[in-house]
Amino acid sequence: MNKLYSFIILLLFVITFGSCKKARLEKMEQSLVGSWELREISGGEIFGISSHYAAGNGNIMQFTERNVTHILANKIATSGSYTVDVRGSGRDREYIINYRDLGTQTFFKIEDNKLTMYSDPELQGELQDATPAIYERVKDPVLERN
To answer: Which CATH architecture has domain 2-138?
Structure first.
């Protein structure tokens, strides 16, 4: 009886923990959906110096539930499907965009309607050394028609 009780408690713990992680991931995926326009790249061209971009610059990332399109100067530069994964937990949690068609991935975070994407996913948790690109959420007449 003791073993059965312990097994049931363990099973409930695993189900609860797994569903919470899945719910957080689904919430992050939904917050990514929309259009994002580039505002800043930190240290990309010259270490320590940021490049700023004005609203209306035309460098846009559009995310639907399954697909992403990168638009430059009102033309599609790349497009394809993606998934979102999570690595770590608690304060060490990191979200990753996996670009299926390109075979690459990018760490990202979303705060205050700003999408920060880190250029070097190989840094393995050293995001402070990565080159961040900061996008701001913008209205898109195509995605927000209804």
So the answer is: Beta Barrel (2.40)
